[in-house]
Structures are given as C-alpha cells and as structure tokens.
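WARN no homologs supplied; continuing
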Amino acid sequence: MTVESLFPVDQLLTDPAAGASGAPGVPVPTPEDLAAYFALIAEAVERDDPGPAARGGWEERERLRFSTWVRQVYAHPLSPAVFALPADRFIRGVRLREAAELAFRIDVGRARAKAPKPSAEVRATAAVASAWAIAADALSRSPRPPRERVVADVWTIVRETIEPALRPTGTVFARSHSSW
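OK structure emitted
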C-alpha cells in the first residue's frame, strides 16, 4: 500500500467527483484560475497595507495584512476548491513567496544585529502555514465558522509565532546623547 493508493493526486486534480473541489458543484480550478485567484488576493492585501509607518507599528501592519487575506479568502467563491487541493508546486510557490515577504518585514521590523532563534524565515514559514491551515479548516466546515472568528484565530497564531522575533532581547538602557 502506497500513499498514492490512498490519496490519488492525479484523480483528485482531474475529477471533481473525487473530491478535489471540496464542495459539490464547485469546478476544479485551472492553473490560470489559480494564478488569477492568488493575484487578486495579493492585490487586496497590498491595497490595504498601511506600510511600515502604520500607527501601531509592525503588529498593526501585520494584523491588517493577515485580516485582509483571511477576509478575501473567505469571500472568494473559488476558495473552497483552492484550499481543498493538494499542495502542488504552484501552491507551494505561493506559500513560499508569502513567507519570504513576511520574513523580510520581520527582519526590517526588528532592526537588531543578533539573529533570533528560530530565524525570521522559519517563523514566517510557520505563520503562513498556520494561516493557510486555519483557513482551509474553516472553509471545509459546514456550516462555516463566523469569518471574524477565523480572522481572530489566524491573527492570534501569527502574532504568537512572529512576535518573539520582533521583541527586543536583553536589557536596554535608554540614555541621552553624550550622557556617558
């Protein structure tokens, strides 16, 4: 017995009746559909991004970015089919790009010389994977949980994952210029 015999990926990708869409009557998305879907989600997130000058700092910025992502995923009619697909090369590439962008924002946000353990890349990958898993779980349920609960769940897990990388380490003594 192999994994392929239990989880026939080719059949899932080509036969909606085999469960690839995750919902009856929802067509299996084509590669073009997936590219357009992820471009639309990314565009909405970028549009709502307040940038590095967000009032609440990194936390407010990332909360807004992840909240927008979840709301867009929740509202899009193709989402149940997309999140029911096995993670192929294209979907893994989307996740990796999202994680790389988050890791960059973590590195810029922390602005300190000593690298945290685990690295920003590891934390970003874990945060993005968690967000995807929570969204996939919510989209697969019937009835779906309230959207704002999913938004709050995603943000709680993401914050707990990336916050330690942005928290200053050690004792920091503030001093005025030329005081020592």
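The two ends are 71 Å apart (CA to CA).
OK
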